């Protein structure tokens, strides 16, 4: 019998390409690294606001670095990364609020589906340049990930409820409380 697994929380937003890369590496190696991966949907916009940070794409030098870095990291970890054609509209105007509320509802009611649905939403925005803000797009992602139409529709209806909204806010605030010293992922010895 080996050591007990360590718990690692990943606070993520499908709008973040770096979150996707980290997500895939952690999912791929969680058994080898003996970690209990806890996925925590959160809003990157809330984290940016809380930290006083700006999206890297808004700063010219960081934007250029981001484009090259994401392309190279995607190749390295074998994640099919392709920037959306209308990058600024996707990131700054459309955002990910509905998608992240949906993932929060998935986590609350069908946590066994969270990894697959998250991955499919990332694929839509960062590989296939598909919208993740429209209800039909979110439903299509959930169904492609293996959810039934009824399950997905039921969860989509819950994204406007206080329970789901509050849980997403709670997750985002928890990520902010970890602060700069730990980033978005945090290991805790159990």
Automatic annotation (TrEMBL):
<dbReference type="GO" id="GO:0005739">
    <property type="term" value="C:mitochondrion"/>
</dbReference>
<dbReference type="InterPro" id="IPR014440">
    <property type="entry name" value="HCCAis_GSTk"/>
</dbReference>
<protein>
    <recommendedName>
        <fullName>Glutathione S-transferase kappa</fullName>
        <ecNumber>2.5.1.18</ecNumber>
    </recommendedName>
</protein>
<dbReference type="GO" id="GO:0004364">
    <property type="term" value="F:glutathione transferase activity"/>
</dbReference>
<dbReference type="InterPro" id="IPR001853">
    <property type="entry name" value="DSBA-like_thioredoxin_dom"/>
</dbReference>
<dbReference type="GO" id="GO:0006749">
    <property type="term" value="P:glutathione metabolic process"/>
</dbReference>
<dbReference type="GO" id="GO:0005777">
    <property type="term" value="C:peroxisome"/>
</dbReference>
<comment type="similarity">
    <text>Belongs to the GST superfamily. Kappa family.</text>
</comment>
<keyword id="KW-0808">Transferase</keyword>
<dbReference type="Pfam" id="PF01323">
    <property type="entry name" value="DSBA"/>
</dbReference>
<dbReference type="InterPro" id="IPR036249">
    <property type="entry name" value="Thioredoxin-like_sf"/>
</dbReference>
<dbReference type="GO" id="GO:0030855">
    <property type="term" value="P:epithelial cell differentiation"/>
</dbReference>
<feature type="active site" description="Nucleophile">
    <location>
        <position position="16"/>
    </location>
</feature>
<dbReference type="InterPro" id="IPR051924">
    <property type="entry name" value="GST_Kappa/NadH"/>
</dbReference>
<feature type="domain" description="DSBA-like thioredoxin">
    <location>
        <begin position="7"/>
        <end position="179"/>
    </location>
</feature>
<dbReference type="GO" id="GO:0004602">
    <property type="term" value="F:glutathione peroxidase activity"/>
</dbReference>
């Amino acid at each position: 019998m080996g050591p007990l697994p360590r718990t690692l929380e990943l606070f993520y937003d499908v709008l973040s390409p770096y979150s996707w890369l980290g997500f895939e590496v952690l999912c791929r190696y969680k058994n080898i690294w003996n970690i209990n991966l806890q996925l925590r949907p959160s809003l990157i916009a809330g984290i940016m606001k809380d930290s006083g940070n700006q999206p890297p794409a808004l700063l010219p030098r960081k934007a250029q670095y981001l484009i090259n870095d994401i392309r190279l990291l995607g190749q390295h970890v074998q994640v099919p990364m392709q920037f959306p054609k209308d990058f600024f509209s996707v990131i700054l105007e459309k955002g990910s609020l509905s998608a992240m509320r949906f993932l929060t509802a998935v986590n609350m009611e069908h946590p066994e589906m969270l990894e697959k649905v998250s991955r499919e939403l990332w694929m839509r925005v960062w590989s296939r340049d598909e919208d993740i803000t429209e209800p039909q797009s979110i439903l299509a992602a959930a169904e492609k990930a293996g959810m039934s139409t009824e399950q997905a529709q039921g969860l989509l209806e819950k994204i406007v409820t206080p329970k789901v909204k509050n849980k997403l806010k709670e997750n985002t605030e928890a990520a902010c409380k970890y602060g700069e010293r730990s980033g978005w992922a945090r290991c805790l010895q159990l």
